[in-house]
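Proteins fold reproducibly. Look at a sample protein:
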Amino acid sequence: MSVSLPALLSQLLLGLVNGSFYAMLSLGLAVIFGLLNVINFAHGALFMMGAVLTWMAMNYLGVNYWVMLLVAPVVVGAFGILIERLLLRWIYKLDHLYGLLLTLGLTLLIEGIFRSAYGVSGLAYDTPDALSGAFNLGFMILPKYRAWVVVASLVVCFVTWFLIEKTRIGAYLRAGTENPRLVEAFGVNVPLMITLTYGFGVALAAFAGVLAAPVIQVSPLMGQNLIIVVFAVVVIGGMGSIMGAILTGLGLGVIEGLTKVFYPEASSTVVFVIMVIVLLIRPAGLFGKEK
């Protein structure tokens, strides 16, 4: 099979862009599961909220993309804090199934509200003027917005990893989930810290939603198209592994892009095939820790 270099590089770029969304979403899931031990099935709906709020702000209030890149994560993060305080805090000591069912119910509720308001057809959101157009690299045309998505995702992902793994705040977070009484003895408000952690995790999903608005058609059901793949990414990387979520998300996006070039029929299933193989060889995931 002969594939031209521009076509190959274009698919690699597309795979890297998709991988950036996988990395951002799986990072939020990994943060919430790794530090709170909750399987947050509502993550896709909160990703959708970030995108739809961005569309609403532009069409109803005239607020531009750059403002919403900051505002939408804050608004959705605040909504996540309400979810944690009113609902999730009561099930932390119960089986994971309770959290999964609760967040699944929240997903259906959130998607149902937006679907009744806007239907299931796509809502158009234009690329910001500053990021319209493309770079001519000679061997391929690189859209400016897709390059921005990759750079912004990488920066946010690795800043989050550094914050959790290499700073005192991250050490308090990890210690607070393992031995909250000991951490509280040092004067740390562990319940508040857990609440803010959940809010931060869903804010990452909303940030990804804002990034996705100009490249993925905004729709109340857009989260459904990604969340299953993102869960597979988290499982492959290792449940709760921050770096595993980032590297696996990016890697699987690239593999998916290459599969579309060489074997398009398998492009929609390659992630799940890899997940099965990894689980057979290493049940804890590539970067997960065996218990």
